[in-house]
Design goal:
With about 500 residues, this protein is mainly beta. The protein has one helix at about 465-470, and strands spanning about 1-5, 15-20, 25, 35, 35-40, 50-55, 70-80, 85-90, 95-100, 110-115, 120-125, 130-135, 140-145, 160-165, 170-180, 180-190, 195-205, 210, 220, 230-240, 245-250, 265-275, 280, 290, 305-310, 320, 330, 340, 355-360, 365-375, 380-390, 390-400, 405-415, 415-420, 430-435, 440-445, 455-460, 475-480, 485-495. It has an eight-stranded antiparallel sheet, with no helix packed on it. Strands 25, 27, 28, 30, 35, 36, 37 and 39 form an eight-stranded antiparallel sheet that branches. Strands 15, 16, 17, 18 and 19 form a five-stranded antiparallel sheet that branches. A hairpin with a 2-residue loop joins strand 2 (about 15-20) and strand 3. The two termini are about 20 Å apart. The structure holds (Z)-L-Arabinonhydroximo-1,4-lactone. (Z)-L-Arabinonhydroximo-1,4-lactone binds near residues 14, 172, 188 and 471.
Amino acid sequence: MKIQNPIIPGFYPDPSICRAGEDYYIVTSSFGYFPGIPIWHSKDLVHWQQIGHCLTKESQLQLEGAKISEGVWAPTIRYHQGRFYMVTTNETKCGHFYVWTEDPAGEWSEPIYVDQSGIDPSLFFEDDKVYFSSTGTEEGIGIYQCEIDIETGKKLTDTKLIWKGTGGKFTEAPHLYKVGDYYYLMCAEGGTEYGHTEVIARSKSPYGPFESCPYNPILTHRSSGRSIQSTGHADLVQASDGSWWAVFLGVRPVSYPYRHHIGRETFIAPVHWTEDGWPIIGNQGTVELEENAPNLPVAKWKQATSRDDFNEKQLQACWAFLRSEEQTEWSLSEKDSTLMLAGSSDRLDSRGYPAFIGRRQQHHSCEVTVSMAYEPQQDDEAGLTVFMDDKHHYDLALTKVNGQTQFILRRQVGSLIDEKLSEPIDGTNVELRIEATPTDYHFYYRVAGKQWTLLGDGEARLLSTEVAGGFTGVFIAMYNYSRNKTKAYYDWFEYEAKE
Ligand code: 6LW
């Protein structure tokens, strides 16, 4: 059996993993999207299924005014004495906090805050001690650590700088482990771009001094021509069969010079220990799209159907809102098997609460089609957006201009905006389609029962991280802009992978 990488494709970066018996859980970053911190479950490390999110309430996640790449960053998940802990940073609002639960698919606790500056927090449990480490800058960029009371989050010791890394930029994303006689401190280094690496050090004390691994970096694809790039930000887990594994982020650029638009994705690779006691990820620090699977009983999940008919009581776990669910007026029950999304007067390029319900683009080649009933008033528009961030998106929508109902294709790249209108159309039941190839998007519409018409195209590279900046990847979302709260009714949404 083989593992297909990425195990979690699309914009799911900064993975952290833990094991509870025969069950494995991964969490990833979610930035300005709500709910926050998606959580995944596997029993064989090969097949992964999203079981929900850790932050589902406004009391756990406030994102008011957050840029798309702000919000919650780089979580760590740990299992200790029957409880799961997920620690992260709300970069925009309140710093580090953790939540806990006994059921990772259920509700998580209210946040418990930790007063230590920086990003990328991690927890390490040993006997009755809980070490809290994170990336800080007080005495230069490095890893800072204290001990906390896990019930209250209160610091029990002063924060100390414990390691500055091997000399690369941005030593960050620390995780502390105890294996044999040593405490191992593993970190990302080199920045999350194409110089990304993972490095490790060890000590007989959790506070160091740390001895750097002679084989560092233990994971990197920097300066290589490999199809996976930017590998780093890793976390280790020992499987129930004794084997060791690392999850980490990577990107799959589609062109040279490198550009990638579907975000940093989650990968997995085996870890081998050297005779002198150092873990090396993959094959001497390199990893493949296909890796040998562990020797665990195969556990496949029911394949999610590509089409969402909106006939359940709750939204499926893949969907997310911009900044807030509460501020969005939507319903699955107003009409049978239909998603109602009421218009918001905040446009997609505002920092407010646009009416937006979307999912990640997880494949370079895919086709998204929706069926929508909508009667726009003057300047209203509802449809689909290919959304990298508030200033980089392509929107295909039904609108009304000068009394005529028409489709609009708007492409915004920074401050450049291009708009194109279709011929006036007759009808309010329509279908919209986006065809994505690795390099382009093609935008089609039709009035129900009629022929498809191509309205225009857009280059994928103009929505890439290299153009837009930030830490996120492309979403494909239903949206609705209206000063009159005009309602759009989405009958179904189909996402078909073409790879
Ligand atoms: C993450 C940090 C990073 O917290 O990017 O470049 C941040 N490094 O490790 C967001 O993913």
